[in-house]
Q: What sequence folds into this?
């Protein structure tokens, strides 16, 4: 337990808009253990991407990290100079994005883009860099590497591009790979291939932080899962526990909605209401307006993360104690 | 690729032919015999008729047109009525001056425009940004004769740093080049800023950051190359605009370029000269557009491969 | 664009309502809350859609967001008022010469000084603004009407009509506008009406090109397709469905074409090819003062500044309108 690959302590990231401060990530605490795939799941706008971008220092204007600590392998990533941060990015921690179509520079050859990080972080000649880029591209399952390296991104398919992105992120063998919805824009068959590839990378020693709104993806490859809602972590547990004994009403709602999609139920299960506006969060628990089991204390105060049964299972709900007794049938 | 280029080239030639026809027809619509107008009220009718026949002006317009095109292809644009010299040689010597002026103006405009555009985009909403963008809007809004006369008044007349007018030395070209480039600098700066800002929002910029590229690296290696595509196109078009005759600037600074030649042609009711200069300018613009288009296709791999 | 956005909002809203109705955990408490939520949302939506669609709310946004554009509009209005009430604003006549007072420097008697014929420059400026504003507006309206009409016809009918119109536009656009204007003025002769015609003939082509491009895009939209399917006539589709949707573009184009027309006119007059004495136009005034640049710079400078101010005002207004209406800028 001592050397965590990533540790986020009380991260607060806000967007300062004309209408006021939007607290996109709120007191987020999160850990990624070495050799594991850790997932963050939640609806769009729940703060999962912002959390990941905060780690990379890629929060876009008008947003910025307000407070909190981010430790990569025990070393602080917050409060360091821009130069130091640059030397970590791409070398120790790297990121792949949702849109493989637009995440590659359209006027730069694919090979060059893969080599780029190597040339930035390692003292290598161009020739050596090209050689190891080719090896990396082969490793992520690209055939005909020699020709493909001379291609421009628009000449590759979506799946290939995402493989290139992964190769690019992995080229310096970072300790942590952050994958922000890596398969959302891809076909289902390609998705399966990419997930398999990520599993392999993890087995080879890279820890992964996987962000997805897709419970299926999370269930397939994650070891440990965080559920986020309205900028906060509302539940965390290892994958088995979370799917077998979800404790937060929101998590249960998500699981039920996902399950009703698979069964031939006439009526799709949904969670009533809409995601609250982050500018006007309800007093008390953010989920209380939509919660079926909302009680008096929920409307006035925000619950802490409370233990819920299994070891390592925490939930931000006053009902945690009661909920753990009612197992939900497995999906 | 080659077929596409040929296609566009053919289209350019067609447009140019259209230009020639349009200008030709417009200048023949004018009522009255140009020779009679030229020779004044007291000219002898027989002389007028002889001259008219000699110049082929008694032929149907279309016959005249094809004759003209035939001549133009051989470099013969007729003889200037007012100056008595071949239009082609007049244009050739004028073009030298216009070329020097345009080159200088372009260098000035692009240096100023591109740097201030980049700075404005990188330091978005800073004082510098507002300053540069205000200046560029001023640049776009100032009439050329105003810029020209202000420069002339302060730098030539008051400070005596440059000659007031003329083409005697290289220094004489500097003020006109600034006057001419001022507008272009404004529009280049605005375009550079807006495309660069757009580019900096792109996802691949995040990717580059995630790789560990610093501010400057992201800007130089990833953003500029992409942002410059439309700018280069605009520059090519602008340059042909500068080359096609800076009528006002050349008039204010008495530079005998293409633009001034056109003004002289109008003043002298000199149809062959007017026709020649205007057609020449149109040709420069058409060629400039063709080059701009081709450049874009060469520089942008997405279009390059599709073609 | 505007209607696209609102349509999207409505679609989202309907989906959310469906979700709310089909809600799981529909305890009475929850559904009541969901119902209230929906109502609030509806109010919000009405506001958003209303804001997206009416002209006045757009203008309100312009007023709120771009003070500079509003200020520019005020400046333009001021110029127009000054032009209309010119005789009331000055004790001098615009053509009476006073040879005792030639080239007077600005003073309390002559706020902007006098010109070479002893005429009050402020007076001539006021009267000249009539000509300059008219040459800005009238030919622009002519070229916009003609250009929009030809553009929509070319874009909608395509084929041979399109080819002919657009090739002619290409030819017109191939000439540097100043030279083309010079030739047309030479052909037509001077006089105000001929200047109007000249500027209209020079400027219609770019309008036609832009409107055609937009027509081509609009043609593919569902509502035009729907109109065609139910048998709406071609002219009706063009005039009732396509042209009104080009209106935002045309408004922006108008505010940007007026200053360019003013500049072209003043350049023509500066060369002595435009408005003829004893009429006053700003460009002509600059021309008349040119030979006295060194001993009486105000004669040329004052009208130059007037031109710059009005052009600047129109450009600011056009920029502001474009930001609000954003018709063809963004992808």
A:
């Amino acid at each position: 337990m001592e050397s965590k690959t990533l540790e986020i302590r009380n991260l607060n990231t806000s967007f300062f808009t004309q209408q006021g401060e939007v607290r996109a990530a709120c007191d987020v605490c999160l850990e990624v253990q070495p050799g594991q795939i850790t997932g963050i799941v939640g609806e769009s706008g729940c703060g999962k991407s912002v959390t990941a971008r905060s780690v990379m220092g890629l929060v876009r204007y008008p947003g910025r990290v307000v407070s909190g600590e981010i430790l990569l392998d025990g070393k602080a990533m917050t409060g360091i100079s821009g130069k130091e941060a640059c030397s970590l990015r791409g070398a120790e921690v790297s990121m792949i994005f949702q849109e493989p179509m637009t995440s590659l520079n359209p006027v730069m050859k694919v090979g060059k883009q893969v080599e780029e990080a190597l040339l930035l972080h390692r003292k290598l000649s161009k020739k050596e860099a090209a050689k190891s880029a080719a090896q990396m591209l082969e490793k992520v399952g690209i055939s005909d590497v020699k020709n493909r390296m001379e291609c421009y991104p628009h000449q590759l398919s979506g799946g290939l591009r995402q493989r290139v992105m992964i190769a690019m992120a992995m080229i310096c063998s970072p300790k942590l790979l952050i994958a922000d919805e890596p398969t959302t824009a891809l076909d289902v068959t390609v998705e399966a291939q990419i997930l398999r590839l990520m599993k392999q990378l993890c087995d080879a020693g890279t820890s992964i932080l996987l962000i997805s709104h897709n419970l299926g993806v999370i269930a397939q490859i994650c070891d440990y899962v965080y559920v986020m809602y309205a900028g906060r972590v509302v539940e965390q547990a290892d994958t088995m526990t979370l799917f077998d004994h979800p404790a937060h009403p929101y998590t249960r709602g998500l699981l039920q909605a996902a399950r009703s999609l698979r069964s031939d139920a006439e009526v799709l299960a949904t969670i009533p209401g809409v995601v609250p506006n982050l500018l006007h969060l309800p007093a008390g628990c953010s989920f209380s307006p939509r919660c079926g089991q909302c009680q008096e204390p929920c409307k006035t105060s925000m619950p802490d993360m409370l233990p819920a049964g299994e070891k390592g299972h925490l939930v931000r709900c006053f009902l945690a104690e009661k909920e753990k007794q009612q197992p939900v049938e497995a999906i | 690729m080659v077929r596409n280029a040929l296609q566009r080239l053919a289209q350019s030639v067609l447009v140019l032919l259209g230009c020639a026809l349009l200008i030709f027809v417009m200048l023949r619509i004018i009522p009255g015999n140009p020779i009679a107008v030229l020779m004044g009220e007291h000219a002898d009718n027989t002389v007028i008729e002889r001259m008219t026949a000699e110049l082929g002006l008694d032929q149907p317009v279309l016959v005249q047109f094809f004759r003209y095109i035939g001549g133009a292809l051989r470099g013969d644009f007729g003889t200037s009525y007012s100056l008595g010299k071949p239009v082609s040689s007049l244009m050739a010597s004028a073009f030298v001056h216009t070329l020097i002026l345009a080159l200088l103006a372009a260098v000035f405009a692009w240096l100023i425009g591109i740097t201030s555009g980049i700075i404005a985009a990188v330091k978005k909403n800073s004082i510098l940004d507002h300053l540069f963008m205000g200046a560029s809007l001023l640049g776009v809004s100032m009439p050329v004769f105003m810029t020209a006369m202000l420069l002339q008044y302060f730098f030539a007349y008051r400070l005596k740093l440059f000659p007031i007018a003329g083409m005697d030395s290289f220094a004489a070209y500097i003020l006109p080049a600034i006057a001419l480039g001022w507008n272009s600098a404004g529009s280049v700066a605005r375009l550079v800023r807006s495309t660069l800002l757009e580019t900096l929002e792109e996802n691949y910029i995040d990717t580059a950051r995630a790789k560990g590229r610093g501010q400057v690296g992201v800007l130089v290696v990833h953003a500029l190359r992409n942002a410059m595509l439309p700018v280069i196109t605009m520059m090519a078009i602008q340059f042909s605009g500068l080359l096609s005759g800076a009528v006002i600037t050349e008039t204010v600074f008495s530079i005998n370029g293409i633009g001034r030649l056109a003004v002289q042609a109008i003043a002298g009711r000199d149809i062959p000269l007017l026709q020649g200069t205007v057609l020449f300018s149109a040709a420069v613009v058409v060629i400039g557009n063709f080059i701009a288009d081709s450049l874009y296709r060469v520089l942008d791999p997405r279009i390059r491969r599709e073609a | 664009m505007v209607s696209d956005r609102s349509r999207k909002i409505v679609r989202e809203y309907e989906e959310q309502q469906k979700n709310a109705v089909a809600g799981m955990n529909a305890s009475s408490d929850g559904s009541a809350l969901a119902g209230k939520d929906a109502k609030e949302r509806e109010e919000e939506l009405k506001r958003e859609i209303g804001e997206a669609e009416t002209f006045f709310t757009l203008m309100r946004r312009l007023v709120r967001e771009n003070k500079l554009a509003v200020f520019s509009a005020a400046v333009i209005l001021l110029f127009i008022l000054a032009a209309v009430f010119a005789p009331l604003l000055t004790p001098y006549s615009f053509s009476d010469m006073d040879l005792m007072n030639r080239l007077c420097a600005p003073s309390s008697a002559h706020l902007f000084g006098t010109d070479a014929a002893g005429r009050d420059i402020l007076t001539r400026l006021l009267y000249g603004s009539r000509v300059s504003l008219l040459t800005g507006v009238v030919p622009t309206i002519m070229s916009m009407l003609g250009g929009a009409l030809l553009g929509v016809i070319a874009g909608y009918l395509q084929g041979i009509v399109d080819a002919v119109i657009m090739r002619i536009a290409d030819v017109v656009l191939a000439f540097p506008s100043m030279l083309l204007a010079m030739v047309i003025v030479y052909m037509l002769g001077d006089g105000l009406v001929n200047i109007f015609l000249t500027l209209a003939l020079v400027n219609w082509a770019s309008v036609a090109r832009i409107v055609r491009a937009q027509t081509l895009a609009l043609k593919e939209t569902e509502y035009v397709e729907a109109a065609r399917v139910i048998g709406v006539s071609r002219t009706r589709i063009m005039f009732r469905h396509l042209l009104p949707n080009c209106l935002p573009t045309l408004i922006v184009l108008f505010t940007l074409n007026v200053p360019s027309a003013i500049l072209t006119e003043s350049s023509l007059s500066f060369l002595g090819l435009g408005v003829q004495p004893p009429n006053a136009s700003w460009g002509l005034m600059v021309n008349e003062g040119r030979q006295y640049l060194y001993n009486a710079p105000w004669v040329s400078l004052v009208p130059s500044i007037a031109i710059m101010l009005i052009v600047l005002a129109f450009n600011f207004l056009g920029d502001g309108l474009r930001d609000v209406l954003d018709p063809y800028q963004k992808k």
About this structure: Chain B has one domain: 87-306. Chain B has a mean pLDDT of 86. The first helix of chain B runs from residue 2 to 29.
